[in-house]
Amino acid sequence: MDRVYVCSCFGITEEQVREHAADGACTPRQIASASKAGTDCGSCVRQIQSLLGRGSCPRRRLAGQDVPVLAEVQAPAGVQERVRAPYEAVLRATAPRGTAGRDAA
Q: Is residue 13 classed as helix, strand or coil in its secondary structure?
């Protein structure tokens, strides 16, 4: 069988890209994490995209069917308020106090 190289920089073949896709890599970035393909000159990224195809990722199919892709993450009780309070204080301090000054100009 002839090897068809997708990424000549790292010697990654179509077969290897398909194996990584079968293992769950759904995007060129995930293929790059698994194999380095596409991380040097980048000329192979479009070919990797075409090998992955549209809808080959289970998460993409679910998102297209209006199924939540990620579960909502709930912070432990009290953490959300402690994290939110400093940001709300900054927003209150920097928010405009009214529109009368801007309208008069």
A: strand
| Alpha carbon separation from 62 to 3, 55, 57, 70 (Å, rounded) | 33, 9, 9, 10
The pLDDT of residue 91:
75
User: In this structure, what are the phi and psi dihedrals at residue 13, rounded to the nearest 5 degrees?
Assistant: -95, 165
Owner of token pair 């970035």: 29
Sign of CA dihedral 35, 41, 46, 47: negative
CA angle at 89 for the pair 88 and 93, rounded to the nearest 5°: 115
Of 16, 29, 33, 15, the closest CA to residue 57 belongs to 29
pLDDT 10s digits, 36-45? 999 999 999 9
